[in-house]
Give the backbone structure.
Amino acid sequence: MKTAHLHQIHPILPVQNVVEALSFYVNRLGFKIAFADDSQEPTYAGIRRDEIEIHLQWHDVKEWEAGFNTPMLRIVTQNVDALYDEFKDKEVYHKQTKVRNTTWGTREFAFFDLYKNGLTFYQDIN
């Protein structure tokens, strides 16, 4: 009997404007567009960088006004300091963003995208 093997996850982030979100992830964070449901006004698209893929899904402004929790992604990297340096001139950090060692054995930094989806990049240091 074959056993199941989980090998990827494609989280879906809510966004108010897919084109703006694509621009942020491509131009500031170095992702490439994997697909989009429409070339002019997409409501659903995927982006890739290295071995990860994230999907972006349009949500009506009324949903944002009602309030809902946006996701927080933890993305593993092999060199968190190099990634931090890559992003530091891209105007994505808030003033408290810094690389830090945690008590749970990681080195990490975090910030929010345009729509308050949390992005934490980390590596194990133990």
